[in-house]
């Protein structure tokens, strides 16, 4: 089904221009001829924050995305009319109202759709997947069927990409066995599709939550053929299957942080609420690969360190274990070289060294005053030593 | 007897099932509320730096993360012993952060999650019996509330205008939060001892602009009158009766204008609230306004036995005039929306946080004790897959949610409970009106009207906090270091958009976490039976009500159980919130309740 030109022009008129139009201006003519792309969107072990984040998207917004790319969203728990309805244990009504019948029709008839995975997949207890049962079936079972017929799986958010908080260190972690799609924490052998033996290309859009631009522009690129799946994937994705354009291997958040100038002058905040660099408060910006500092969030206006919070590395594989404690300087936490990306470690080493030299001469530390001396020593020691 | 099951109940946060037994007259005779997912949450806070809690616990829920970060920050303030020094401007920032999220979360629930049920085909069939007027009203319902994914007889309809508008407004509210809190969901503002960002004068002006922008949507779509006019005549009305009269007069006026033309459009003044207020209720619509038809939502979602239900609010939004610091036990005069407990007969009682406990008798957990206080909470999840079975009925274990109790009584939490306890004039007046006319005062209709009203209440307070109370570039945090959390405890009582939220934390000699527990709103509302066998609020609200649209107006239709959907969704279910784990006592010493 081709997108009708008149409808398209009308939609653009009503909704107004957007960054999406600028980005894909030359592809507009092509978009008009796009055939319908079917999209399946599942929710597993998660908080629905990624769905909410997608509703917060503005360039394009979710409705523009669906219209411009002629996407047919077949199933999405938050945005659909249907729900599972059973009468005396048997599915009732029709797929117009019954999501379980809709799901069966999709699983039976559809293939080669874009499969958006939000949330992880429970494997516990004992591999049964019974920690999430929907309509009498385990999510694991439904997931397996859906994933087998997909053309590409786009995992959105930390729970789907790496299992995120659900797989954080705890004494029930092994029992629950919540899995990411292609990775669990940093382990690519533990993803659910590996466990189920499903060989499908996976694109990971990390983040807690994922940024709507990252997701929508990735979908756009795939649907418009800008990224050919699977042929182009080895070149456009990093070793965690993340698009390099949004998660640049050679750049970190620290590079473009608006507080960077304070860092270079050695003006480091020791308590929250101040205007200076957040390094001493545990900022993971120097180790975190994402374009947050240039793209910004929610209408492109701010991001965590700009609003006074140390970056907690929520896009990093292994989050939160690899980046907590959040408010302790990374070297003090003893995690450099174990979890954090070594490329970033090397890159930032030089910067730290330079800043350290400045800091010795020029550190202007804010309150509390009694910490001034030891903080200065720390900086020179750390930068001069380990790196 | 017919078994009707909704599994999953979609358009909520999380994964939820409702199972019912229905008799041949279409009356629900038994119900079980099942939380379907076990996630495991507080466990990974154990033995960790307590300061991470404000950022990590908000990841319990992506719809209302802000309340978790504030409840955690409140608990940390006490844990670190700085609760009396938290700067006033930090408290105002917490109010603003939470205020924007209340509006965004309510907008998401009313329009995106709950609204689409108004466009259910059952209402098409019911309304079409009433000629032009029915036709016009159905056109409005479908045109406003149709969700993005829908089909009728295989045909897809465009998403509703109000629905799409609400997505936009939620986005604006989140943009506003992001401005001062980095990003949304999972913003980063909250921290022990205050907040991490002090807004500039430019930020303050921008925040005002965001509220103004949403006020425009509210005027054009939600209310059909300016929010100021509405608030002056309801929230700020001199008596509950005056507030109700204002709304009834407004509805009568709209109706008089539309009866000839059958024009119920936004442009003729029928905002979404008036449309629902008139057609949602049998009492208001049919009896007071003389409409031929209504959705009869005031007949469902009621509690038959006042001895088995209560209403609870922990209180939310600090009073800026109280200056620095606050009382962690949240007594009524400390918060803008106060703490309080109201019994099933709607009598206000003094709130005592010490009598909160949770039962696991009907939940998939293993423990020798059936009831425990949050300070001594234990959660050992069922690990035997054969024992995880939702289908064995009310006498069995059937949910991953526990059953919280206040002095042994299950409680409804959320906007209706809060505004009744607050004595908000419109809510109080409505509840009284229902009572006086022989209706149950608490029902699906009053529950939804209270949620709509709370958006407006919070909007007006939000404007005050931004314009009057917030100082630019003020001090927003007191200094803390980890050693201050040694061998300590803290409690954070707050309100999520969907109800009472408490976080409890304890630390050991190394200042690391030894106990963390969150008792959350959807665990209250969607609880299974407690240890005395008393059904949870949503179960009580289902039993005795009818299964199909508008009190079985078109007969009994087991295959389209709108009655269950309306009642279940009227609580704004948020399941990720309700399923989590807590500390097991074996590994950590028992906790003594501190009497403050």
In a nutshell, what does this entry contain?
By secondary structure, chain A is an alpha/beta fold. Chain A is built from 17 helices and 11 strands.
Any overview of this molecule?
The complex is a heterodimer of chains A (387) and B (596). With 387 residues, chain A is α/β, with parallel strands linked by helices. Chain A has 17 helices and eleven strands. Chain A has helices spanning 5-15, 19-23, 28-32, 49-55, 62-68, 99-109, 139-148, 158-162, 173-176, 192-196, 212-223, 233-236, 260-264, 292-295, 330-333, 342-362, 372-385; strands spanning 37-43, 71-76, 85-87, 90-91, 113-118, 121-122, 133-134, 137-138, 150-156, 178-179, 202-205. In chain A, strands 2-1-5-9-11 form a five-stranded parallel beta sheet, with helices on both faces. Chain A has a two-stranded antiparallel sheet with strand order 3-4. In chain A, strand 3 (85-87) and strand 4 (90-91) form a beta hairpin. In chain A, helix 4 packs across helix 11 (212-223). Chain B has helices spanning 53-56, 65-79, 88-114, 121-127, 131-145, 161-181, 201-223, 227-233, 240-261, 272-279, 282-288, 415-422, 425-436, 444-469, 521-525, 537-542, 549-552, 562-570, 575-578; strands spanning 2-6, 16-22, 28-35, 190-191, 194-195, 310-318, 335-343, 348-349, 356-359, 371-372, 403-406, 411-412, 489-496, 499-507, 513-519. The relative contact order of chain B is 0.20. The N and C termini of chain B lie far apart (52 Å). In chain B, strands 8-7-6-12 form a four-stranded mixed beta sheet. Chain B is built from 19 helices and 15 strands. Chains A and B meet through helix 4, helix 5, strand 2, strand 3 and strand 7 of A and strand 1, helix 3, helix 6 and strand 5 of B. Strand 3 of chain A pairs antiparallel with strand 1 (2-6) of chain B, so a sheet runs across the interface. Chain B: Its cofactor is Fe cation; Ni(2+).
